[in-house]
Specification:
It is built from 8 helices and 5 strands. It has 210 residues and is of the alpha+beta class. The chain has one domain. A 5-stranded mixed beta sheet has the order 1-2-3-4-5, sandwiched between helices. Helix 6 packs across helix 7. It is globular, with a radius of gyration of 17 Å.
């Protein structure tokens, strides 16, 4: 039987805090540009006290009304770590989950199938968000690559990129390059391999997820 993910032990409490509005508003703290991978720990400590205050907190960081991203402190991979939760409200029902690389890969593939412009430029958008040489904010990316597509599709791209953004920041905080670790390069490699025709099962043979 597969091992249950650690985040499940927090799910009921996170759900309760979200449904009752018992969370901190962290919208707009990190927008454009994203901090460089080696600076993520300092920036997250400045805005959210992820190191100096490890008390249980839920922080809203992205809000698309029916789709929200929260971070939860603490988590245990490092003394700076946090969980990333996505919350979807549909027909009055709230669904929360810690998104996996598989979840985001599926989201990415579905988005590419919806529009020729997205199919061509979503990989570029992903690179501009995560790659150390760019770290563009999401409004800038959408304006640059997707300005002329339907508003609803822009929202869907925003949801995907916003989720990926916080997972990339989480990987940078746990595995900073200045400690000779790969950080968010792992996430970026997934989408390069998807574009090359790899399935997620094949990608798992190339990249070892932690």
């Amino acid at each position: 039987m597969p091992k249950k993910p650690n985040w499940l032990k927090h799910k009921d409490l996170v759900y309760e805090r979200i449904i009752n509005g018992q969370y901190i508003d962290g919208i707009g703290k990190i927008v454009d540009p994203l901090p460089s991978p080696d600076d993520v720990r300092d920036v997250m400590e400045e805005y959210f006290k992820v190191y100096s205050d490890r008390s249980f907190r839920i922080i809203l960081v992205e809000d698309y009304n029916d789709y929200k991203i929260f971070i939860q402190i603490p988590d245990g991979k490092s003394s700076y770590d946090f969980y990333v939760w996505r919350a979807i409200l549909k027909d009055g029902v709230l669904d929360i989950k810690v998104p996996t690389h598989d979840d985001l890969a599926k989201f990415y593939i579905e988005l590419r199938s919806k529009n020729k412009v997205i199919e061509e430029y979503l990989i570029n958008a992903t690179i501009k968000l995560v790659h150390v040489n760019y770290r563009w904010g999401i409004p800038k990316i959408i304006s640059y690559y997707f300005n002329n597509i339907e508003e609803e599709l822009k929202r869907e791209i925003g949801k995907f990129l916003s989720t990926l953004k916080w997972i990339a920041l989480q990987e940078d905080i746990n595995y900073p390059p200045k400690e000779k670790k790969m950080g968010s390069k792992y996430a970026l490699a997934i989408y390069a391999l998807l574009e090359a025709g790899f399935s997620m099962n094949e990608i798992r043979r190339v990249i070892k997820f932690r």
